[in-house]
């Protein structure tokens, strides 16, 4: 059986560790659940762990979040598009924005729904994704503060999400100065600078993130433990929250190099290059029943360090096992760690089972029994600070 396993105990460990980092910094954070693709059971487990602020970029996923976590604050993390403004306002409490036309449309829809919608205005700091240019800040903000059903929480930025721009202290200090400028210019308190992401966590560990950066949006490091700057796993986090198990359909000793002429143009997928294999070399090969249709095979790493992915087609991945079959037989499974891109495609794949371990109902009972009744579960995000966090957000 092919399945993605989600170790809820490991997830709990990462939640607590990142929560401790946030508390030490005096920051709040939102769990970015995009990679879960609306997976009901994992969202249920997050809710049991005390998560009260969740961000996603798909409205269908936000609908599931509303059903599973009705008391949670929902962030819409993709720039709102005009054709979906009604759903954005219905399903989310906070959205990230960079177009005045869209913000005005959100204001009108919020007025129709009798709501106040909170926004973070994104600023371009070099990754060349969403965000207004710093030189346009004052003119842009002149148009938003008087909108009747919009609450401007503050400013934000994305780094490392498109061009791989590495966050640095100067960029984060710029954001602090931009907020100070806008607050003085318009005499309007903006409590939030939402510029923290998984890519900023290494700086947070090193103690160099300015205190003014007080909101983080964390997804990849929570679920995979990834250190996006230095590589590997962040100290204190587990990298085995998510594994994929793929069933062996064939296992045989074969040549490890093709026995005929080859061309890169024949395969529709990027080839895996194994440079340490010699001509004529033989070894055991296992064929497992997941492929490029299911995931980004280049983002799979066998848990057993002796194994090596040799290549993949749409439905089959070939794994070199070495000089031994390691006791494996047809019907057994091989476990892989996953990259973010591999996990995203797996969770969106209707052909792969997603299995929380332990079962989510058992886990929820464990969590409920593990807390002191006088101590509430950890709450992340802005929800604990009241409407918009205007009065008490630090």
CATH topology (level 3) name of the largest domain: TIM Barrel
Radius of gyration: 23 Å
What do we call the CATH homologous superfamily of the largest domain?
Alanine racemase
What is the overall pLDDT average?
A: 88
Which quaternary structure do these chains form?
A: single chain
Short synopsis of the structure:
This protein is α/β, with parallel strands linked by helices.
Descriptors:
disordered C terminus, Lyase, Ornithine Decarboxylase, Chain A, domain 1, 11 helices, 16 strands, about 400 residues, about 25% strand, eight-stranded parallel β-barrel, TIM Barrel, alpha/beta
What does this protein structure show overall?
The chain has 394 residues and is an alpha/beta fold. It has two domains: 8-237 and 375-389, Alpha-Beta Barrel (TIM Barrel); 242-357, Lyase, Ornithine Decarboxylase, Chain A, domain 1 (Beta Barrel), CATH 2.40.37. Helix content is 28%, strand content 23%. Strands 1, 10, 11, 12, 13, 14, 15 and 16 form an eight-stranded mixed beta sheet that branches. The protein has an eight-stranded parallel beta barrel with strand order 2-3-4-5-6-7-8-9, surrounded by five helices. Helix 2 (40-48) packs parallel to helix 11 and helix 4 crosses helix 5. The longest helix has 18 residues, at 8-25. The chain is elongated, with a radius of gyration of 23 Å. The model is unreliable at 371-378 and 383-394 (pLDDT under 50).
């Amino acid at each position: 059986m092919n399945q993605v396993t989600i170790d809820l105990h490991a997830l709990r460990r990462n939640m607590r560790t990142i929560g401790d980092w946030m508390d030490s910094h005096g920051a709040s954070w939102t769990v970015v659940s995009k990679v879960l693709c609306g997976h009901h059971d994992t969202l249920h487990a997050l809710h049991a762990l005390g998560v009260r602020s969740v961000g996603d970029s798909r409205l269908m996923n936000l609908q599931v979040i509303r059903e599973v976590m009705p008391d949670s604050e929902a962030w819409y993390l993709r720039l709102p598009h005009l054709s979906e403004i009604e759903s954005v306002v219905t399903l989310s409490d906070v959205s990230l924005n960079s177009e005045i036309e869209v913000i005005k449309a959100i204001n009108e829809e919020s007025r129709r729904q009798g709501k106040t919608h909170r926004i973070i205005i994104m600023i371009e700091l070099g990754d060349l994704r969403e965000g207004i240019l710093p030189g346009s800040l004052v003119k842009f903000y002149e148009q938003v503060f008087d909108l009747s059903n919009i609450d401007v929480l503050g400013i934000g930025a994305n780094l490392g999400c498109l061009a791989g721009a590495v966050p640095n202290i100067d960029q984060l200090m710029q954001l602090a100065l931009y907020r100070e400028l806008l607050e003085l210019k318009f005499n309007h308190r903006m409590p939030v600078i939402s510029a923290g992401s998984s890519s900023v966590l290494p700086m947070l560990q090193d103690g160099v993130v300015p205190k003014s950066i007080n909101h983080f949006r964390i997804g990849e490091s929570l679920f995979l433990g990834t250190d996006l700057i230095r590589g590997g796993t962040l100290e204190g986090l587990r990298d085995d929250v998510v594994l994929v198990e793929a069933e062996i359909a064939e296992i045989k000793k074969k040549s490890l190099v093709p026995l005929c002429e080859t061309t890169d143009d024949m395969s529709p997928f990027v080839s895996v290059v194994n440079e340490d294999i010699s001509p004529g070399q033989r070894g055991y090969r296992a064929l497992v029943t997941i492929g490029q249709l299911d995931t980004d095979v280049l983002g799979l790493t066998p848990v057993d360090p002796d194994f090596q992915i040799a290549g993949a087609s749409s439905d089959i991945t070939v794994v070199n096992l070495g000089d031994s079959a390691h006791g494996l037989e047809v019907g057994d499974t091989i476990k892989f760690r996953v990259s973010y891109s591999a996990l995203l495609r797996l969770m969106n794949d209707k052909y792969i089972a997603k299995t929380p371990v332990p079962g989510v109902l058992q886990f929820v009972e464990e969590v409920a029994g593990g807390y002191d009744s006088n101590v509430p579960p950890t709450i992340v995000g802005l929800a604990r600070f009241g409407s918009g966090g205007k009065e008490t957000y630090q």
